[in-house]
Design a protein that fits this description.
There is one protein chain. The chain is mainly α. The protein contains 6 helices and 2 strands; from the N terminus they run ααααβααβ. It starts with 5 loop residues before the first helix and ends in a 9-residue tail after the last strand.
Length: 136
């Protein structure tokens, strides 16, 4: 079993939600970006067949539609980026942010996110800037 799977990330995000009122940036960082880091590390060190397993099991819903939509969007975005088929759960049309979720809390960031958000996120109502998925 991997240190982080999408289901584990959902559990961690749910714990954050249950323990207070986290910011959108914190939910993004501790939910989505840590998951992306785990996937990218596996991709580099073990290859795509192992890395894809991070998204094998559908994550439980957290109740935060923006975060739930983000997990699906991330899976589809990575599948497109890395040339694999996204799992069926990630294509579920119910995984949409209602209302739309803007990860940035600033008006400036929200305006840029409207323009820059990748299609896999935008169609699910999740708006991020073009740097939100960049990792060092």
């Amino acid at each position: 079993m991997f240190a982080t799977t999408v289901d584990f990330a959902a559990d961690e995000a749910l714990a954050l939600l249950n323990n207070g009122d986290p910011t959108s940036e914190d939910l993004w960082r501790f939910g989505v970006l840590q998951l992306l880091d785990e996937y990218d590390s596996l991709l580099r060190h073990t290859g795509p067949i192992t890395a894809i397993e991070v998204f094998q099991v559908a994550p439980k819903l957290t109740g935060h539609t923006g975060l739930d939509a983000s997990f699906a969007a991330l899976a589809c975005w990575l599948a497109t980026r890395d040339g694999w088929q996204a799992r069926t759960w990630a294509k579920n049309p119910q995984r949409v942010a209602r209302p739309w979720w803007f990860v940035s809390s600033s008006e400036y960031g929200r305006a840029w996110a409207m323009v820059q958000s990748p299609g896999e996120f935008r169609i699910r109502g999740v708006f991020i800037t073009n740097t939100a998925l960049l990792r060092a």
